[in-house]
Design brief:
mainly alpha; three-stranded mixed sheet; 24 helices; 3% strand; disordered N terminus
């Protein structure tokens, strides 16, 4: 037993590794559904996770009530709630500036500066990286850029799969480097390191990976580019006025960088975008919020007389009632993903409380990590394994952090180095695996595009299983740390301790 291990709260037939049955079943389900069958349906993944949790219950020794209680404990974890709230706010914000013609403005700007389909993915990577670094949420960036920049690039002729990969790469960069990112904070705190020092020490890794990723997007963008699409007004240049929403985005970035909570930052951007839409006549109030009520309702007729309230009440035939608008669509589109994430975090909780994570960590500690080089390599591999099981990268960090800390201290590895290995791989792989939270967040936003644009067909929606080779920054970031582990690049030790293991490098 390692110092990480305690008696598990749950016991399973088959031992501690049997606690991984729910997550393992879900991964197999996701591979079959998304990879083999090509079905990109989040609700289908929800069913897979539900089935995994039910099957896992059959392996439990003792009362099934204890297993059920652990599921509830997992679903109430703060890390899941944080991601969910960020998705909801980012979704509403992205849909609202989209309603104000921001995509048309981007296309107009691309035409004005002669940015073609080949260059667009590389520029998208840079802009997404800047936004994610500023606001500290890669998930929010994936949502916003998929809803706003992705259709503009597709209209110009950029390859959809490559473009989606560029967006996810930018999200990886910001999630890894932003001082206000939750993954940055968790990686620093769990390794007893200060946030400022951690960020400063990881720049050399992030920039190296970003340079290679940018070059890759330049080359692939040129070779995979197609012809501009005939999409009516958008293809002829769109409208420059939609670019006014750069102000809305700027307010979000400035507010977040100033240290305000991401919810507050996005809320100010959302309010600004609504004011701009109405004040500049970019979108009606009903485009942001509309109550579609029966037209024969007397109350509807009374509300129609009120200039503001009446503009959001849309009379329709009985039976067609609904709530609509960017606020509604931006939030409701993520409901299946929210359910999926809650269930996956519950499955991870089962594995943690059943000793599955500890079993894997014990094996790595006692059998594989026998030198500093191997120790750091297993840190990289361990974070990859955990990210394959947990879709939320912050939750994955929390699960693997004790192992990274224990192993790092055994070999006298500096806290900055440990935090960088922990964060880089969880940030990267969370946007690469087809069931990763960041990838699914962007994919969920993409699924709504056929309803937003007449020219955007279902065939343009990227299958989550097809994008993984094109998240270049994610792959290069992992490669940088594998090479760093084997070559010693950037390796630092705790200066006031010397252990005999260090001499075994």
């Amino acid at each position: 037993m390692s110092e990480l291990s305690d008696d598990p709260d749950l016991r399973f037939y088959g031992g501690r590794l049997a606690s991984a049955v729910p997550i393992a079943f879900f991964i197999v389900w996701a591979i079959v559904q998304s990879g083999l069958l090509g079905v990109g349906d989040t609700t289908g993944l929800v069913v897979g996770m539900l089935a995994g949790l039910i099957i896992g219950m059959l392996f439990v020794k003792g009362p099934w009530k204890d297993y059920a209680d652990v599921i509830f404990d997992g679903m109430t974890e703060r890390v899941a709630a944080t991601a969910i709230v960020a998705w909801l706010w980012a979704g509403m914000f992205a849909e609202t500036i989209q309603a104000g013609g921001f995509v048309d403005g981007l296309v107009w700007a691309a035409d004005a500066v002669n940015v073609g389909a080949g260059l667009f993915p590389a520029l998208t990577f840079l802009l997404a990286a800047l936004l994610a670094t500023g606001i500290g949420t890669g998930y929010g960036t994936a949502i916003a850029f998929t809803a706003l920049v992705f259709p503009a690039g597709v209209a110009l002729g950029s390859n959809p799969v490559l473009l989606f990969g560029a967006i996810l790469s930018g999200a990886v960069f910001g999630d890894n480097l932003a001082p206000v990112s939750d993954t940055t904070i968790v990686s620093a705190v769990t390794q007893d390191a200060d946030i400022g020092g951690v960020v400063a020490s990881r720049i050399k890794y992030a920039v190296v990976a970003a340079i290679f990723a940018f070059a890759a997007y330049l080359i692939a963008g040129q070779s995979m580019a197609g012809a501009p699409l005939d999409v009516g007004g958008v293809s002829t240049g769109g409208s420059a006025l939609g670019l006014v929403h750069l102000l809305s985005i700027g307010i979000v970035i400035v507010t977040a960088v100033a240290g305000r909570h991401i919810i507050e930052a996005v809320s100010w951007g959302l309010i600004t975008s609504m004011v701009l839409n109405i004040g500049l006549d970019l979108a009606d109030a009903s485009a942001m919020l509309a109550f579609k009520a029966p037209q024969n309702s007397g109350l509807v007729q009374q509300m129609d007389a009120l200039p503001v309230i009446g503009s959001v009440v849309v009379p329709v035939e009985a039976g067609n009632t609904a709530v609509a608008g960017s606020l509604y669509a931006g939030a409701s589109g993520f409901f299946p993903l929210i359910v999926l994430v809650l269930l996956i975090v519950a499955g991870a909780q089962v594995m943690q409380r059943g000793g599955g994570f500890e079993a894997i960590q014990d094996f790595l500690l006692n059998s594989v990590a026998t030198t500093v080089r191997r120790a750091e390599t297993t840190m990289v591999i361990g974070t990859a394994m955990v990210n394959a099981m947990i879709t939320i990268n912050t939750a994955a960090e929390i699960a693997i952090a004790p192992y990274i800390r224990t192993l790092g201290r055994r070999f006298n590895i500096n806290g900055y180095r440990r935090a960088n290995i922990l964060d880089a791989n969880t940030s990267a792989l969370g946007y690469i695996f087809p069931w990763g939270g960041g990838l699914l967040a962007g994919f969920t936003a993409m699924q709504q595009l056929p309803g937003e644009y007449e020219w955007f067909t279902q065939a343009m929606v990227v299958n989550p299983a097809s994008v993984w080779p094109y998240v270049f920054h994610g792959w290069f970031l992992v490669a940088v740390f594998i090479l760093a582990a084997w070559t010693g690049y950037g390796r630092e030790y705790v200066p006031d301790r010397v252990s005999e293991e260090v001499s075994r490098v």
